[in-house]
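Morning F.,

Quick status update on the modeling queue. The single chain you submitted on Monday has been processed. Sequence for confirmation:
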Amino acid sequence: LNHHLVEQLFDLTPAEAFIAARLAEGHSLQEIAALRRSSISTIRTHMKRIFMKTGTSRQGELVQLILTSPAIS
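Structure tokens below.
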């Protein structure tokens, strides 16, 4: 999933878009933390901002929003 597209669609930072795109691909927060060489705490902080910007409150909701976006489908 192209995280640059996710970044543009939802007005996310590059880091937030990378995390959101990886979640939509089925990666866990722990896997994403390892990929980014970040702590799980840092990833969770990004998640809070992603939820605020997308109007979602759960990972499943976020993934559904991304995967059902007309620009991505």
